[in-house]
Write a structure and sequence with these properties.
- The protein has helices at residues 17-20, 91-94, 107-112, 223-230, 325-328, 341-347; strands at 48-49, 55-60, 73-82, 87-90, 98-101, 121-126, 145-155, 165-166, 172-177, 189-198, 203-206, 215-217, 237-243, 251-262, 282-283, 289-294, 307-316, 321-324, 332-335, 355-360, 379-388.
- By secondary structure, the chain is mainly beta.
- The protein has three domains: 17-155, Chitinase A, domain 3; 165-262, Chitinase A, domain 3 (Roll), CATH 3.10.50.40; 282-388, Chitinase A, domain 3, CATH 3.10.50.
- Strands 1, 2, 3, 4, 5, 6 and 7 form a seven-stranded antiparallel sheet that branches. Strands 8, 9, 10, 11, 12, 13 and 14 form a seven-stranded antiparallel sheet that branches.
- The protein starts with 16 loop residues before the first helix and ends with a strand.
Length: 390
């Protein structure tokens, strides 16, 4: 529904390797069981300690003077224990080293491996706040964690070109083809195409593949996207390097094309009952509440597997509008099982032509604090079902 960029998808395999975001091969035929360190319970007095509380000790020195940067990709062998001596993950036992972007793992690893050089082996005592916390759940180990890590190699990540220009907000870019005319206003609706790739060229998002050219008010887009598009002219294409801390190289490469823009019509006013559902609202077993604003025609209800065309506007309970196809003047079409749970359930209550208001609790929407520019908590939507596309 609401067009936003996605954080990069990280592949993971193995058992607890998933928790580190590491990609590992299958176990070797003759696995080696790493020996539990004698000092697994606590760091010895001669361990080095950083300001963050990370403790470490060099087990065998490496060669050279080069240290990895947080944005580099490293290849390592490692084993991890809880302080009671339980081994919870080991590339050594699997017989296959692991490679990963250094800024895509727990804080203790990101900080600690930057202390090392190639060939070095070091033991780390990582406090909970630099690991997974005290009680992380999801099968991840909590509390202080102990790792033996051997840094095998460092691969420099691609860098942002030195000759790239920068927007006022610091987004690096290069113009590929010039546009013409004026630039859009801060609240204009922009229609654009976007291809997002990793720094090494793997495409992770391409709006050309969706069959629909996205449009959105510039002030409702994620800040970096809104800033870039508001700096462009109609028809302009540019390559930008957007900050993405967890991505290899610390950036993703975004190829923008500003297709067109127009003045945004007035935003639909917030409903009088936006703060809470009225007593006469219908309520389902899941906690979804709704009220029919306009009756539809016919008896057909969409199924979860159907594609629907709708007009909608969404507000938080303080009356702030965060998205509206009505304001864009363009209905939205999507598979009903590809959106938030509250929409999947709620639209199956409707028939074409019907307009309904939904009060969607956080657990049927994006959660309480979803991040990524998505609204949290209870959300209110006015939805008009225009068509069941099938």
């Amino acid at each position: 529904m609401n067009f936003t960029t996605k954080s990069l998808r990280r592949a993971a395999a193995g058992t607890a390797a998933v928790m580190l975001g590491l990609v590992s091969a299958a176990p070797s035929e003759e696995p080696t069981m790493p020996e539990t360190p004698a000092d697994v319970k606590a760091a010895p007095e001669d361990a080095q300690k950083t300001e963050s509380g990370l403790a470490s000790k060099v087990l065998s020195p490496g060669k050279g003077e080069k240290h990895p940067a947080a944005t580099d990709t490293v290849t390592v062998h490692y084993s991890g224990w809880t302080t009671d001596g339980k081994l919870f993950d080991s590339s050594v036992q699997r017989g296959q080293p692991t490679s990963f972007p250094l800024n895509g793992v727990i804080k203790g690893w990101t900080e600690g491996l930057q202390l090392m050089v190639e060939g070095e082996k070091r033991r780390f005592w990582i406090p909970a706040e630099l690991g997974y916390g005290e009680n992380p759940g999801g099968g991840r180990p909590g509390g202080t964690l102990v790792f033996d890590v051997e840094l095998i190699s460092i691969k420099d990540s691609p860098k942002v070109p030195a000759d790239a220009k920068k927007t006022a907000g610091g987004v690096a870019y290069k113009v590929i083809s010039e546009g013409e005319g004026e630039k859009p206003g801060a609240k204009d609706i922009a229609t654009f195409q976007l291809i997002v790739s990793t720094m090494d060229g793997n495409v992770v998002q391409d709006t050309h593949q969706s069959g629909q050219t996205p449009s959105a008010p510039l002030d409702k887009l994620p800040p970096q996207l809104g800033e870039v598009l508001s700096d462009m002219k109609k028809g302009e294409k540019r390559t930008c390097w957007l900050s993405e801390p967890g991505a290899p190289g610390g950036h993703v490469v975004a190829e923008f094309e500003l297709v067109s823009f127009k003045e945004a019509p007035p935003a639909p006013p917030a409903p009088d009952d936006v703060a809470a559902a009225p007593d006469d609202a219908e309520k389902t077993d899941s906690g979804l509440k709704s009220k029919v604003l306009k009756a539809g025609e016919g008896k057909d209800h969409p199924k979860a597997t159907d594609t629907v065309k709708v007009h909608y506007t969404g507000w938080t309970t303080d009356g702030e509008m965060f998205d509206s196809s009505v304001q864009r003047g363009e209905p939205a079409t999507f598979p009903l099982n590809g959106v938030i749970k509250g929409w999947t359930e709620g639209l199956q209550l409707m028939v074409p032509g019907e307009k309904r208001r939904f009060w969607i609790p956080a657990d049927l929407a994006y959660g309480e604090n979803p991040g990524g520019g998505r609204p949290g908590g209870l959300l209110v939507f006015d939805v008009e079902l225009l068509e069941i596309v099938k």
